[in-house]
Specification:
With about 450 residues, the protein is of the alpha/beta class. It is built from twelve helices and 18 strands. Helix 1 (about 20-30) crosses helix 12 and helix 7 (about 210-220) runs parallel beside helix 10 (about 280-295). The N and C termini lie far apart (about 55 Å). The chain has helices at about 20-30, 80-85, 90-95, 100-115, 170-175, 190-195, 210-220, 250-260, 265-270, 280-295, 395-400, 410-420, and strands spanning about 15, 35-40, 120, 125-130, 135-145, 150-155, 155-160, 165, 180-185, 200-205, 230, 305, 310-320, 320-330, 335-340, 340-345, 350, 390.
Length: about 450
């Protein structure tokens, strides 16, 4: 028999992208011996938001939300197993850390990715097409260290291509200018030394990334000469929803409920849930206040300004500096701010699938807003001409709700995909996961 991945012996599953979500799928797929799989990633190793691995910054989810534990605690790819392999289990026990640092989560995922033979790095997927003759997807990819091209065949795909930094239109040209320090927070650490050498820095964006960048700059700049501005469109620097019952909106129960709503209701509901995933942790807000308070002990106020309710309408280069035009929504006032650098903590956007699936796109069924329809198994709805399944990870917030990008649902979603692909419950899942009853049965 030919090798797995050939036209006559296609893989059962081929993953595109090796971020946390497809890495979770790869780790759980490793526990299904009869399943053949491979996962391709264009970077040369696992990297998880390297520009935001700020010293001391923690995950917003507990360590139990690793790649596998909430589905299979006995998996060899759990975070606790990683600690044992590193002989750090007792130090972790005494540290009593429920929320681990981002850098440690990144190191854990890299350990898993380097240990799983199914993960193949330095391979960039260029074309995906359906081969009806072999009833399989043909995935053409090339080595990033050269032009060598190959094809792999698979009966099913899992797309985990991640998100891209979102840059407001008024900053787009400035970000592309190498002489100007205008950057997305995704690249913060790479430019931190340069930012600390400038007189004034402005952070734009009210979420967790903006708060962490502002706090890190604040801690590293001299007392009385902080010269920092933190601007946000939201009416307040609001804490993230972290009540116990509130967090139940990140359960499989709520995901199923959200998916069952009609499209119009989902679209109206999602923007109102921003505080579930766009707020700031209370701990980080407390650390910022404590740092500011500490700097005011001598009776002076730190040269740091935090202003919510402000929108940046335009940005331009002016005499070696940047001038931002601002509007305050509630006051109805406008003004300008001169600064030497801008860090855009303006979030991320889902990478469009149309480019990767160019040849398949006519077969993808779409909703009224031209977004792909995704079924309850996290699978793109395709017309009858394609018999294989294309599963998506973190590309279905419009159909599955605010939990789509949440690490706490990674293992559960991976198990849903593997159970559907296998046609049996290779990973038994709980029937109920929340005390809240979402919806009313009448």
């Amino acid at each position: 028999m030919s090798a797995p991945g050939s036209p006559t012996n296609p893989l059962d599953l081929l993953g595109v992208g090796v971020g946390p979500f497809n890495l979770s799928l790869a780790a759980l797929a490793d526990g299904v011996p009869e399943l053949t799989s491979a996962f391709l990633e264009r970077t040369d190793s696992f990297r998880w938001h390297p520009g935001l691995l700020i010293e001391g910054a923690s995950l917003q989810v507990p360590f139990l939300a690793d790649l596998v534990t909430l589905v299979e605690p006995a998996s060899p790819w759990s975070f606790l197993r990683y600690l044992r392999e590193r002989e750090r289990l007792f130090p972790f026990y005494f540290a009593e850390r429920f929320h681990i640092e981002r850098a440690e989560y990144d190191a854990y995922c890299r350990w898993v990715s380097q240990s799983l033979p199914s993960c193949r790095f330095g391979r960039e997927v260029e074309t995906v097409r359906w081969d009806a003759r072999h009833s399989a997807f043909e995935v053409e990819h090339r080595a990033t260290d050269g032009d060598r091209r190959e094809s792999l065949y698979a009966r099913n795909l899992a797309l985990g291509v991640g998100t891209a930094p979102q840059v407001p239109d008024c900053f787009r040209e400035l970000v592309e200018d190498p002489e100007l320090p205008v950057l997305h927070s995704a690249d913060y650490l790479e430019h931190r030394t340069r930012l600390l050498g400038l007189d004034h820095v402005t952070v734009v964006g009210s979420g967790q990334s903006g708060a962490e960048v502002f706090l890190d700059l604040l801690r590293r700049r001299p007392h009385g000469r902080e010269n920092l501005d933190w601007l946000a469109r939201t009416p307040a620097f609001a804490p993230m929803e972290y009540s116990k019952l509130g967090l139940e909106q990140f359960t499989p129960d709520y995901t199923r409920y959200f998916h069952g709503l009609d499209e119009e209701t989902r679209d109206a509901l999602l923007p109102r849930q921003w505080q579930l995933y766009k707020g700031v942790s209370e701990e980080t807000l407390g650390d910022i206040h404590q740092e500011l308070y500490h700097r005011s002990v001598d009776g002076g106020w730190p040269a740091a300004r935090l202003t919510p309710g402000v929108a940046v309408c335009s940005a331009r280069r002016s005499e070696g500096r940047l001038t931002l035009k601002l509007e305050h929504a509630q006051q109805g006032t406008a003004g300008e701010l001169a600064t030497d650098a801008v860090v855009l903590a303006t979030g991320y956007t889902e990478r469009p699938l149309a480019g990767l699936l160019h040849q398949l796109w006519p077969q993808v069924l779409r909703d009224r807003s031209d977004r792909p329809r995704v079924d309850a198994h996290h699978r793109l709805e395709l017309d009858g001409g394609v018999t294989g399944s294309v599963y998506v990870q973190n590309a279905e917030r419009h159909t599955h709700g605010p939990g789509a990008p949440d690490l706490g649902l990674a293992a559960w979603r991976s198990a849903v995909i593997l159970n559907h692909l296998s046609g049996r419950a290779v990973y038994p899942l709980p029937r109920r996961t929340a005390f809240t009853s979402f919806g009313w049965g009448g």
